[in-house]
Amino acid sequence: MKKEKNSFGNNISFAQGETWRFNNEVAKNFDQHVVSSIPHYNAIQKYIANISEWFLTENSTIYDIGCSTSNTSYEISKKNEKIKKLNFLCIDSSKQMLEISKKKLKLLKHNYKFLKKDINKIKTFNKHDLCLCVLLLPFLKNQKKLALLKKIQKSLNSGGALLIVDKIHSDLSISENIFNQIYHDFKLNFFSKTQIWNKAKSLRSSMKLNTNSQNLELFKKSGFKRYEVFFRWFNFCGYIVFK
Q1: Which of 15, 25, 149, 170 has minimal Cβ neighbours within 10 Å of its Cβ?
Q2: Residue 120 sits in the same domain as residue 190
Q3: Segment 39-84, tens digit of pLDDT
Q4: Distance between CA atoms of 63 and 155, rounded to whole angstroms?
Q5: How many whole angstroms separate alpha carbon 52 and alpha carbon 163?
Q6: pLDDT digits (tens, 9 = 90+) for 1-22
Q7: Is the pTM of this model over 0.85?
Q8: Domain containing 122 — which CATH number?
Q9: Using CA of residue 226, residue 75, residue 139, residue 8, what is the dihedral sign?
C-alpha cells in the first residue's frame, strides 16, 4: 500500500515521513521553489555575480559546489562575459540538476564541466580563484563542513575567495523566535500553512544549522583568516571568505 503524499508546493510532494532530498521531482521544480523559499534569492545571485568581478581574470577557474541548477554560475558567467575564457566546474550529486544546468549554460560562452559527485567524497580540488557554496552548508554536519572548508582553503589561489550563502540560527533565542516568525510570514506569500509544515518536518534530520558565531569559528579552524558578511536577511547570511 502506497503512503499518502504530502505537498510542499511548486509540484513537489514527498511520502509521509520521508526526509527531504534533492530528487528528480525537486530538480524539475527547483528554480520556482527556491525563489519562493529563499528571501531575495534572485538579488543574492546578482550580488554574488557583482562580487565575482574582483576575483576573476582570463582563464580563472570557478568551483560551484552543490550547484543545483547552476543559477549562480549562470549569473557570474553573464556578468563576466567580457572575459575571454572562464572555467566553471559545477558539482552536484543529482544527475537531473546537472542536466538542467547543462541546458541553462549551453548558450553562454565560457567553459563548463559538470561532475556528478557526493562532495564529501571529493579528496582534493584543483587550484581555483573563486569557490561557491550557495545554500550547501545547511545540509552538512559540522565535521563535514569543516572538512570541506579545509579542502577549499588549501586549493584556493592566493587572492581568491569563497562565497557562502547559509541559513543560520540566531545567537540569541529572542531573535531566533522573531526571525523564524518573519520567515514564516514570508513563505505564506507562496505556500499554505500545511505545505510549510510538511517541508519543515521533512527537514528535521537533514538540515544542520549553525549560528553566525559558530560559522566564523569554522572559518578560523579551516585556515581562513579574513571574512566579511555581504548579505543578511534575518536568519540568512552571505559571507565573503578571503584567501
Answers
A1: 15
A2: no
A3: 999 999 999 999 999 999 999 999 999 999 999 999 999 999 999 9
A4: 11
A5: 9
A6: 567 888 999 999 888 888 988 9
A7: yes
A8: 3.40.50.150
A9: positive
